[in-house]
């Protein structure tokens, strides 16, 4: 199951990368600079999600990942403090990550 999730996340990242020229044009930005940054951010997001999917502690389905200019924002829910911390540690391990903003909410299983 985790392998399927990882493969799906990687495929999603590749698809996002292919759409980046359209995104840059819609934003009215200089295509090469905007496209490069968008591709980098999409790649970082994909790699962080893949790390989460492969990890036994973190639920890739409950933790959301967004990246803008190399800054990763984690959000969503975690069942334990260890999961919150582990999600951040894994994100920081990805090449190109400049900073991590951890906004994951602790929601213990009731």
Automatic annotation (TrEMBL):
Residues 1-24 form the signal peptide. The keyword Signal applies. Residues 40-108 form the BON domain. InterPro entries: BON_dom (IPR007055), Lipoprotein_DolP (IPR051686). The keyword Signal applies. PROSITE patterns: BON. Keywords: Signal. It comes from the Bacteria. This is BON domain-containing protein.
């Amino acid at each position: 199951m985790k392998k399927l999730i990882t493969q799906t996340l990687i495929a999603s990242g590749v698809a996002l990368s292919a759409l980046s020229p359209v995104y840059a044009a819609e934003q009215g930005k200089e295509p090469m600079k905007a496209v490069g940054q968008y591709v980098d951010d999409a790649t970082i997001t994909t790699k962080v999600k893949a790390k989460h999917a492969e990890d036994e502690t973190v639920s890739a389905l409950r933790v959301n990942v967004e990246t803008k200019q190399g800054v990763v924002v984690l959000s969503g829910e975690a069942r334990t403090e260890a999961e919150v911390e582990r999600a951040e540690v894994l994100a920081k391990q990805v090449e190109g990550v400049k900073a991590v903003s951890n906004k994951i909410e602790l929601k213990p299983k009731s």
